[in-house]
UniProtKB/TrEMBL annotation:
Full protein name: Arylsulfotransferase (ASST)
Gene Ontology MF annotations: aryl sulfotransferase activity
Naturally occurring in which organism (per UniProt): Streptococcus acidominimus
Family annotation (Pfam families): Arylsulfotrans
Sorted UniProt keywords: Transferase
InterPro entries assigned to the protein according to its UniProt record, in alphabetical order: Arylsulfotransferase_bact (IPR010262)
Length: 115
């Protein structure tokens, strides 16, 4: 790769089994970082549908919204990492880049004077 001329790619060969993309799951990880102590700690982890790239997460209070791009799905998980609901995109695309969830409170309308 031309973008990393200073990196030694010898351990990353095309036939290297460690780069196998035929996996069934990916993982969501949450870390707490202490910049003053220069430390980090993983505080949460759970399995999500496999996607090597094109994925995103969004904190929704205690829940998490996870988009698994190559799986063409997104789902919501509770605070313990339990799956709540999954949605799939049925179209001509082969991936989902990013998903967001909004409540739309006062988004299109404002409260009327009578309320």
């Amino acid at each position: 790769m031309d973008s990393r001329k200073d990196f030694d790619w010898c351990h990353y060969q095309p036939n290297d089994d460690s780069l196998d993309v035929n996996h069934s799951v990916s993982f969501y990880y949450k870390y707490l970082v202490d910049e003053n102590k220069r430390t980090f700690e993983r505080v949460d982890a759970f399995e999500v549908p496999y996607s090597p790239y094109l994925s995103s997460t969004q904190a929704l209070g205690d829940n998490m919204l996870v988009a698994s791009g190559q799986d063409i799905s997104f789902g919501e998980y509770d605070a313990k990492g339990n799956f709540i609901k999954r949605f799939r995109y049925l179209g001509e695309t082969t991936s989902i880049y990013r998903v967001f969830k909004y409540d739309f409170d006062n988004f299109y309308f404002t409260q009327s004077e009578n309320e």
